[in-house]
Amino acid sequence: MEQFIEFTNNHMLLVAGTIMMALAVLFYEIRLQTSKVSALSSAQAVRLINQGAKVIDIRDRAQFDSGHIVDSINVPAPDLDGGHKRLKNAKTIILICDNGSKSRQSIATLKNEGLENIFSLQGGLSTWRQDNLPIVVSDGDK
């Protein structure tokens, strides 16, 4: 123990640098783990959908009509701000956009409205299509 204290006293910058690096790695890992919690892979999304999760497509109506996930509901992102009525009774919500970025941002909006268990499809509908999962095309009259 005396050698450790002597080493620390003789090499303050080295010890301080090591501690700073360890804290930086710890912070990065914690941030990485917390961000992954809200993003789902296509397989995880399918599992939740089969368990009754509600799929909300936050793209505009024209994009939704050009192709969307079966039984998904179109609620454009700007309409989420007031807390959408159809979402209040959902136990689990999966938000879908084109590439996953808007849906990740919209999670905070819905959590501020008091909703829980909200997830984003990682990579959005483009990843869903790449995984060859089913897409429905609407006629736009609904």
How would you describe what is shown here?
The termini are far apart. The longest helix is centred in the first third of the chain and has 26 residues, at 12-37. The protein has 6 helices and 5 strands; from the N terminus they run ααβαβαββαβα. The mean pLDDT is 86. 49% of the residues lie in helices and 11% in strands. Strands 1-5-4-2-3 form a 5-stranded parallel β-sheet. It is of the alpha/beta class and 142 residues long. It has 2 domains: 2-36; 39-130, Oxidized Rhodanese, domain 1 (3-Layer(aba) Sandwich).
Share of residues in helices: 40-55%
What is the H level of CATH, i.e. the homologous superfamily of the largest domain? Answer: Rhodanese-like domain
CATH topology of the largest domain: Oxidized Rhodanese, domain 1
Count of DSSP H/I helices: 6
Nearest-integer average pLDDT:
86
Strand content bin = 5-15%
Give start-end ranges of low-pLDDT stretches: none
CATH class of the largest domain: Alpha Beta
Going by CATH, the architecture of the largest domain would be 3-Layer(aba) Sandwich
The figure for the number of domains is 2
What can be said about the biggest beta sheet?
A: 5 strands, parallel
Strand order of the largest sheet: 1-5-4-2-3
Query: What is the β-strand count?
Result: 5
| Alpha-beta content class | alpha/beta
Give the SSE order as H and E letters.
HHEHEHEEHEH
